[in-house]
Target: C4-dicarboxylate TRAP transporter large permease protein DctM
Amino acid sequence: MPREIQDEAAQPVGMGTLPPSLRGLLAASAILLSIASINHLFNLGFFMNIRLLEIHYLYVMLLLTLPLVYLIFPCSKTNPHGSTRWWDYFLAFLALITCAFFAYYGRSVVNKGWDFAAPTHAVIASFAFWFLLLVAARRTGGWMLFGIILMFSVYPMIADYAPGPIQGFQRPPVETAIFHAMSGESVLGIPMRSFVNLVVGFMIFGVAMQHTGAGPFFIDIAFSALGHVRGGPAKVGVLTSGLTGSMSGSVITNVLTTGSITIPAMKKVGFRPSYAAGIEAAASTGAVLMPPIMGATAFVMASFLLTDYTNIVVAAVLPSLLYFFALFAQIDAYSARNGLKGVPRAELPKFGKVLREGWYFLAVFGLLIWMLLYLKREAIAPFYATALLIGLNQLLSKSRWGRQELMNFLVATGRLFVELVAILAAVGLIVGGLAVTGMSGTISNDLLFIAGGNTFLLLLLGALTSFILGMGMTVTAAYVILAVSLAPALIAGGLDPIGVHLFILYWSMLSYITPPVALAAFAAAAIAQARPFAAAYEAMKLGTIIYIVPFFFVLDPAYTLQAGLVDSALTVLRAGIGVLLICAGLQGYLLGVGRIEPGPTGAVARILLGIAGLAFALPSTPMLAVPIPGAVGAGVAITVLGAVIVAFSRDRKAA
Model:
């Protein structure tokens, strides 16, 4: 198993491997950060005699989390948790006093313009802050993220020496340091502001769902509803991964939790180990893209687009449904082709009993969605949902929390905050490096020039870049880099802004199922006792639609429900038919016709069905200059031809 998977697998939800002192610090951090966030978002006025600015809250969030990075995340992977060295304590203390300094002098930063001209003690603190964030990025995000952030953060000091297309206004080291530390366009920019204003509540809600037993409930409800059908355990794996992955926001965590139950069940009814691992990996990867909770990146996206988070949710609905529909269709086709049955009903949990015991999870989700979509209160909705969830859990559940369960919840929440703040704050250095040199306003024109004004070429380059960055860093970090550099160029090329940002997000996720990295597939392979690259191949095959769909929704606003009702409805219909045909070609089974026999004739039929599917799902855009009625007509004709070939080859074999 790769080291990255071992590291994440070693982190149980309750973080029980940490020493008691660190667990206590994490719990205290979670409590204080939550109180500060609630006070900020609900305008409760806890600090009646002190008029706090938003900059104070940003520094307080850093004060409560950054020092713990050096105690929770070891200096090297060979250092297990609990073997904290003296320099870790020194870095934690330095982070504590540095963040406290900026929190105390927050008003001076704003009123006296310290981000342009600062006194000596503020300059020293700024350099220390910059250094601490680079160390935090390396510990939480790895060497690749560290290298990219270092390059962008020091770029202002060498911008004058850069080659023509990426040349910017050079800044001396002092100006660069104080801009990074105190400007609203660097560390305190969009990523951190998104965390303060949107992310905190949803992170608390996700951890609360995990710790109140939502994961086992969703698994049981899925088994009771789908476990008996053809290929039932695999379909259960897709459904449960979609539900629980949306809560956890972590692909690997999702694989390790749901996969430990669903993969053995798949193998029991006849799925090959590598195929079972591929299903879990593909489903867990798509789960993080599933509304209504899409991980921290979606909230950062809303801030970049200056739009409500609900607009991101609505735009992501159809692409994510198409992806999961494709997984269901492929599993059904594979099961039919190989004669795989479901689990006998007698061995499955009873739907009514499961629903009676866990109905409140659905009620809480209902409240969250109602507040998001109807009331448009995305900042405070998760706090109400969390309060309702914990209250109902304590009143109705057999697994109500005691002191230890509450502690585990606080520790897990604190660790999530620590890791996320470290990454978001460090990624802000990238935004700052481009902003202070003026590159953020010109880089899109430079990229368009490099691509020769060809939007399709720029899309291909963007997909490749997103994929490469996603291999070596968190999805949020990869997204922020490209949202600053690539997205404006694509939007300037005439593409829909929401579609462009979702395109970047989707392609940043694909490294989880694509070799040579494929961490989700490797994690699932370890559970299934399958060969890692065989599992990665199956995951890629099952996830084929996720490689295609981003090009559709970035070119056609109807795919993100940004067009009219009729256009969106027709697009849903065309896309659904197209996905079915593509899946038939991939799995060798055409619904209503039957198994596609192996051999040259069958291969031709499968290729024709794939082409027909693409014709049906073709995006409606002037850039392609292809009329949709003509594409649909071609799709119908090719489908009929493919079906005739399938039927003919079967008749010949029977004869």
